[in-house]
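Handout, section B. The chain below has 328 residues.
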Amino acid sequence: MSTTPILQVKQLRKLFHFNTEGIFKRQETYVHAVDGITFDLDQGEVLGLVGESGCGKSTLALTLLGLEPATEGNILFEGREISHAKGKQIKELRRHIQMVFQDPYESLNPLMTIGEIVAEPLKVHGLTRDKNEISARVNQALEDAGLKPADIYYHRYPHQLSGGQRQRVVIAGALVLQPTLLLADEPVSMLDVSIRAEILNLLADLRTNYGISILFITHDLATAAYFTDRVAVMYLGRIVEIGPTLEVLSNPAHPYTKALLSVIPVPNPRQRHERIILSGDPPNPVNLPAGCRFHPRCPMVFDRCRLEDPKVFDLGNNHSVHCWLLEN
């Protein structure tokens, strides 16, 4: 696996602006959905992005793809700045960066056949008009996605497939353009447990066979442990801990990561440990707390946490943590 990053994200911010009515005048207000995120993704690597619902995971993916414009910061794809790509540049970019959305029931057009759905990206990007070539590439994408033989599925409609098969169609629609980066936003959360491992194994095979890099968004740490090389833990618009998956999950350093891991069910009663139950709800992303944004819920909070925003501490082995507890 190459050490040259295919994706570099530097201090990325995505703020949603809206106006509120004050006593005397309208006030400008911002939702801090993504607020100063920095990370690299190597070629052929799988990076897991985990965190509670509403922490900004999906917004980050949409911003990386250009479906949401970045407010500040830089996004470099294969060394090219893409954070403000528009027009032809963004269209060219989407040939190489594809997204797999969470809900296969909503992301497929019920009026189109499976063959038409998978062929649509080829037509949108004008890659070929030859019907035989389109058919061949669609069949290859369907079989790469595990729908074999492809002829059985080509003329079916989405309602004739199971949930797992629909998600494979979504993956095939991304593969038909032969991308180098896949943004997978909760791709197995809508599926039965028995099907999840099949889809994860499929994505692992695509990484192995084609060298595709994957940003894998999930709220399930067990899934991240099974599938990812590194994991980034996100809280209220920021990455609070990032490092090799086994190291982060076996030796978590941030209190939030520890709390997430403590509530994962374990089959052996003798291996159960004390659960860390966080009090309260995450702060409002419009009115962020002073200091560390996790401090209102942190069981290890002390005075400095309430006053100063912590810096990032490097623990070595590409493991870094955003917390004052690591200062000494």
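Note. The mean pLDDT is 90. Compare this with the example in section A.
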